[in-house]
Design goal:
mainly alpha; 13 helices; 365 residues; 2 domains
């Protein structure tokens, strides 16, 4: 009897360690889908913060949170409903545990928005936390792809991965568009402003050393004005009288200088954030278009063969048509309420079509 139990146990472990081709496709697909969900929930939170279809987006956000949580647990421990085998690879398990820790921190703020009990600081925390979560999930997909290389062809694995990545990029672009619309101040600059002592000098140093920001002539002009204020402030310190009257006068001047410099520095930091998001938006659009063209025409560099599957070709043609309409909003960085609503109308149908394409690629031998 004991011998039989040992044989059954070994057989079970063997099955867990050797998933089928169908299970491998599901793992890569759902791990890749997690990347998309990090961006989808961030997008939904920012829409709620913007007051756009609040109830609908709260309901959608709760479902996204639940799905991300369920899939993350499924990747770690297996999930029959999701057709996910338990991950046995130690390196991948360690990475998934790290993601679980990141997710617990992120979930505190995303839950607040979903429940309608949040402040602007929650949106800022989501802005700062979604990218590390996205990058970690992207590493996981690459690790799964490497692990399962002997079981599936390189082309099939990379095609499922990249087709899945398109879903994420669509959500990421909409999220970036909303970040521009929200004008969220840069946390790093705000922290420097609150540290006291040399806070203006530290913040100026950070801004001046931001090479991308320094390319903007408007930022340069504003920094010159801040520098003048800083020089005047330092002179007022040197020339301050140490009498009671002199200290009182200096305190009044300091208050005025502090308000002016803080206001201008936050303005510059916000402008730089907007520029950074615009650059990210363009990069996401370029990457999306490159992968879409690769799926339609094939691309040796990306490891994607042109598909002969008529169903996939038909879906890709529809996606290309929808992308042209969506791309117009992205290219113009149009954050008007009308364009944001239009982006929302295209956003999820586009993701659904891409999801179907990934599933069709999964079925291909």
């Amino acid at each position: 009897m004991k011998k039989l139990l040992v044989i059954v146990l070994l057989f079970t472990l063997f099955l867990d360690a050797n998933p089928t081709k169908e299970e491998i496709g599901t793992v890569i697909n759902l791990a890749g889908k997690q990347r998309m969900l990090t961006q989808k929930m961030s997008k939904e939170a920012l829409l709620i913060g913007k007051g756009i279809d609040v109830e609908k987006n709260q309901e959608a956000l709760k479902k996204t949170i639940s799905l991300f949580d369920k899939t993350l647990q499924g990747l770690l421990n297996g999930d029959k409903a999701l057709k996910l085998p338990k991950t046995e690879n130690k390196e991948i398990r360690d990475e998934l545990q790290s993601i679980s820790a990141l997710w617990r921190e992120f979930k505190v703020f995303i839950d607040r928005v979903a429940n309608g009990n949040f402040k602007r600081t929650s949106l800022k925390a989501i802005e700062m936390g979604n990218t590390p979560l996205l990058k970690s999930m992207n590493r996981i997909v690459t690790m799964y792809e490497e692990q399962y290389k002997p079981n599936i062809s390189d082309k099939r694995g990379s095609t499922i991965n990249l087709a899945g990545k398109e879903r994420m990029l669509i959500q990421k672009m909409t999220k970036e568009l909303l970040l521009i619309a929200h004008h969220l101040e840069s946390t790093s600059y705000m922290k420097s402003l609150k540290e006291g002592g040399d806070f203006f000098k530290n913040t100026l140093f950070q801004l001046i050393n931001d090479k991308e920001a320094m390319k903007n002539p408007e930022v340069l002009l504003e920094l010159q004005e801040i520098n003048k204020l800083w020089d005047e402030y330092q002179k007022s310190i040197i020339n301050a009288e140490l009498s009671e009257k002199g200290i009182h006068q200096f305190n009044q001047k300091e208050k005025i200088f502090t308000e002016k410099m803080t206001s201008k520095l936050i303005l510059v930091a916000t402008r730089i954030d907007k520029q950074r998001y615009q650059n990210e938006l363009k990069k996401s659009a370029t990457e999306f278009e490159k992968i879409l063209n690769a799926m339609i025409h094939g691309d040796e560099e990306l490891g994607i063969l042109k598909t002969e599957n008529r169903s996939i070709q038909k879906k890709l043609a529809k996606i290309e048509e929808m992308w042209k309409e969506y791309k117009e909003i992205i290219d113009n960085v149009d954050t008007s309420t009308k364009s944001l609503k239009k982006a929302m109308q295209i956003n999820m149908p586009l993701v659904e079509h891409l999801d179907e394409v990934v599933k069709l690629y999964e079925l291909e031998e």
